[in-house]
Amino acid sequence: MSAGSRTVGILEQELADLRAQLLRHARHAVHDAWLAEDLVQETLIVVMQKDHTRRGDSTLLTWAVGILKHKVADWYRSPSRKRMVQLDTDDEQLEPAVQALHDSNGAYVDQVRAWQQPENREEVRQMMVVLLRCLDCLPKQTGRVFMMREWLGFETSEICQRAAISAENCRTILHRARTALRVCMQRDWITAKAKP
Amino acid sequence: MNPLHSCKRVAELLSQSMDEPLGWYDALRMRIHLSMCDNCRNVEEQVLGMQALLKELFTAKDLPDERGPP
Which domain covers residue A17, as residue numbers? Predict the structure, then answer.
């Protein structure tokens, strides 16, 4: 009995950690806290029910992230949810910052300084924390399009279909998202590195 | 037609090339520009670096579970 409850205790802690990890992924992928909760909950159900089918060569997290990706992709692909996905495009919000980088000839106004490469795991970790914060700052629809591409690995043709945007629009959104992230990292990562 | 792209155009093409193959002429002009422009080479390194970091970010176990500023 006591051994049994201990096993359950470990499992519970493991699940709690896993849930926190999955929520971080899901929140960035759908930019909606409630929806993220739902998708993670659905993922945990599969994790609980199917853990015995997991191969020894994949870690619990990698395996669970794979399941979550399917859940998120299914959500984007579900016709009944189409209306929810189709938000107004909001990448214009980023346009002033993107425009300000270049002069009228399209050259950089300020020199683009190379980033200092992280020197150890702790610095890589710090850099990821900065990147996460920068991701949070993307407008909602822009963030979704970016994550559909970079996390779910959707082809741009599928993104156009799911988000009901043109190919040109998709190109622009991805470009603005990457530029905004780069500018955000330029500002916050270099500042973070400069701290004593 | 200007044989060289502007830095602004190169940034657009760099992003596009991460999602779809570029036409050969655009790709050629972009490569030539990159070979001569430190700013754009740094931009290239940064966007590709961020993409790699993103992949790692979603399997990292040692990140705090924090929300950034709303």
Answer: 1-87
